[in-house]
Amino acid sequence: MINLRLALLPIFSLSLCLHTPWALAATGEIVQTSAADRSEARSFRPAASVTRPKIGLALGGGGARGAAEVGVLKILEKEGIHFDLVTGTSIGSVIGGFYCLGATPEQMEKEFKSGAVMRNFMAVPLTFRLIIAPAFLLLRPLSHNKYDGLYGGNKFRKYLVGKLASDEGLIEDMKIPFAAIALNVVDGRPYMIRKGHLGYAMQASCAVPALRKPVEIDGMLFSDGGVSCNLPVKQCREMGADFVIAVNIDEPFEQVPLTAFKTPGSITKRMVKWALFDIDEPQAALADVTIHPNTEGISLISTRRSDAIRGIKAGEAAATAALPMLRKKLKEIGIEPTPAAAVNNNSQN
After folding, report:
1. Contact call for residues 91 and 66 (beta carbons, < 8 A)
2. How many C-beta atoms surround the C-beta of residue 335 within 10 A?
3. In this predicted structure, what is the pLDDT of residue 313?
4. 3-state class of 270 per DSSP?
5. Residue 298: Cβ-neighbour burial (10 angstroms; 0-12, 13-18, 19+)
6. Cβ of 117: how many Cβ atoms within 10 Å?
7. In this predicted structure, what is the pLDDT of residue 132?
8. What pLDDT sits at residue 289?
9. Which of 224, 250, 280, 307 is the catalytic position?
10. Which residues have CB under 8 Å from 99's CB, separation 6+?
């Protein structure tokens, strides 16, 4: 059942978006953007900053693998690396939105380890929901959200905003500029949601096609941004970032032996991996540093506590390995972060 749902993702992922030049997306707007292509990535040259460079964070989509992004943030925060703006797609929009609200990685870690994040994302077990899907089709005319999908997503939104915000919490009022990336299924273009209720923006960015119902905002109908801009590095630059740290939580896409494709569902799984790799590769090329935790074997919709713990540890390991390069590149642009331990020692002296 899960593979059947995942098989739909490559179909959506193969659509191409219009190329648009770099532009600063103003706060308080829903701004059309586009996926990065390989030629754009090859020709990109960052412009020299005349002021203090703005550090951007681009958090990719990946469902339960988002625990790895929490692990990355734990290490970067200890290193004293803070961000001037954040973009996030799907689960990356949830973690990025919480970060911009002031949530600590430890708070987010607790939610993932408890299983609360994915339990609320999958309000009813997927297999059971598929079994009773015909009954839901009959009841759709009575539903508030009549659009296609197995889950409405309202429970997930209420869980999210109930933790750190309220339904009235507006993106444009957040201290750190933030954009949730979602696809408008009406015109087929990805957008940066930079205004309105944070909870609805997160819900829209996480609306996995065929699984979650799309979310209507300002006359547009938004679905998961991962089908076109799963790793929103270009969008981070469009918002004004001079230096971008990207976190890619896809499973690794590497050459495998022929024997790997003899088991049922192996081709479908491989094509899902390829679709995400194909979307994310040019975006990652636009980042100054891409941190890629090893999330192999963690299902997009896993509710296992063990997977959350493994994802967090993978994020910590990948971020730790990237620190020497990060320090070097940040120093080249005149930024030398002060690790949290050093700050604490100075405050005690």
Report:
1. yes
2. 16
3. 98
4. helix
5. buried
6. 26
7. 35
8. 98
9. 224
10. 57, 73, 83, 86, 176
pLDDT > 50? residue 19: no
Total number of residues shown for the chain: 349
**Are 194 and 179 within 8 A, CB to CB?**
yes
* Residue of 33 and 341 predicted with greater confidence: 33
Bridge pairing between strands 85-89 and 55-59: parallel
- For residue 335, the model assigns a pLDDT of 94
How far apart (Å, rounded) are the C-alpha atoms in residues 251 and 294?
7
Q: Supply the pLDDT for residue 99.
A: 92
pLDDT at residue 26, as a whole number: 59
In the set 90, 205, 228, 302, the catalytic residue is: 90
- Model confidence, pTM: 0.84
For the segment 177-201, the average pLDDT, to the nearest whole number, is: 95
What is the pLDDT averaged over residues 77-91? 97
Tokens encoding 81: 């690396």
Tell which phi-psi region holds residue 124, choosing left (phi > 0), alpha (psi between -120 and 50) or beta. beta
Rounded to an integer, what is the distance from CA 235 to the centroid of its chain? 12
Greatest alpha-carbon span in the chain: 68
Nearest Cα residue to 273 out of 297, 293, 291, 289: 297
The residues, any chain, with a CB within 8 Å of residue 154's CB and separated by 6 or more, are: 145, 203
Using CA atoms, how far apart are residues 294 and 252, in angstroms rounded to an integer?
Answer: 7
Of 270, 208, 213, the closest CA to residue 63 belongs to: 208
Q: Is 114 a catalytic residue?
A: no
**DSSP annotation of 252:** P
pLDDT at residue 139, as a whole number: 43
Known catalytic residue: 84?
A: no
Q: Whole-angstrom distance between the N-terminal and C-terminal Cα of the chain?
A: 59
How many C-beta neighbours within 10 Å does residue 168 have?
A: 10
Q: Which of 52, 58, 54, 46 is nearest to 86 (CA)?
A: 58
